[in-house]
Amino acid sequence: MKLYSWNVNGIRAVDKKGALAEFINKENPDIVCFQETKAHEDQLDLEFPEYEKFWNSATKKGYSGTAIWSKVPPLTALYGLPDELVTKYKLDSDKYGDPSNEGRVLALEFEKFYLITVYTPNSKGDLTRLELRHKQWDPAFLEYARSYAEKKPVFFCGDLNVAHAEIDLANPKPNVGKHGFTFEEREGFDAMLKNGFYDTFRLFNTEGGNYTWWTHWANARERNIGWRIDYFLASEKAKPMVKAAEIHAKVMGSDHCPISITIDAKA
Prior knowledge:
By secondary structure, the chain is of the alpha+beta class. It has helices spanning 11-16, 19-27, 83-88, 130-149, 172-175, 183-194, 200-204, 220-223, and strands spanning 2-7, 31-35, 52-56, 66-70, 76-79, 105-109, 114-119, 154-159, 197-199, 230-235, 242-247, 259-263.
């Protein structure tokens, strides 16, 4: 079974370019998770009838949002962080909005595993959302993922808006302390690893030069001056199921490229 994740940076725009159909037809995912959909379901007129589609859109139209399309019928769909975690970690509104109303988390439960997709809040260029990210969002999401990992294997994927290590971005030194590569954001990723989750790509590839996002400036994508900020993580019980992990850098349509894992749910 192949599971994909893609920050589409506007699913309507990607569809209009023809890139969505090209991706689906070529890669043929069994399940695909999208982040930054920037759309409500009633704004879309998409085909792809082979997929059952689940949407968690932001209250604010044209912003954020996640979706999961699956050929495999799930047992249940779970939308957003539960209220008790929102309250516990005080995920209140800030000047950008309410992170719990931005459609950032969506999960499907299957017979053998949970699949969660997440669009982690960006800390912003001036780091004005870093404290929310570090002290509230990251620990809340980790507790959420751990709660499901106690029940059955968990995979979670998406745009985590952080390059974990120097190997994960082309120019680490000048970016130390900048959003996406602060100590606090990287500490949040470390906490996931310390709590029994595995960066699936690094199970198979320990080399640099593998990125999932490129700025539009200065021909960065053509020059491969990028960042790896999109991930598939697997819980301890899910790790043996993972047979391959890939970055699909040649798939165009967004400033991010898709990533995937191949799993054997019987493992």
